[in-house]
Design goal:
Largest sheet: none
Oligomer: single chain
Distance between the termini: 73 Å
Helix content: over 70%
Shape: elongated
Radius of gyration: 25 Å
Order of helices and strands: HH
Strand content: under 5%
């Protein structure tokens, strides 16, 4: 019985109490997430490339 009450309350909350974003808000948020992801990926790429270059230089000193 408790499980049935839980699902009824969860459904009621999702349908009547949650404020869902509009399509335009979702598109705007998705664009911001894409841009942020690209920037972070670019930063990680630059860090990886730099570290690889530094390590190649260090290794070349010993060979």
């Amino acid at each position: 019985m408790k499980l049935k009450i839980y699902f009824e309350e969860a459904y009621n909350e999702l349908v009547h109490k949650v404020s869902w974003p509009t399509r335009k808000e979702l598109q705007s948020s998705a664009f911001i997430v894409m841009v942020a992801s690209l920037i972070i990926a670019l930063i990680v790429f630059v860090m990886d490339f730099s570290f690889e270059s530094i390590m190649n230089f260090v290794y070349s000193l010993f060979y």
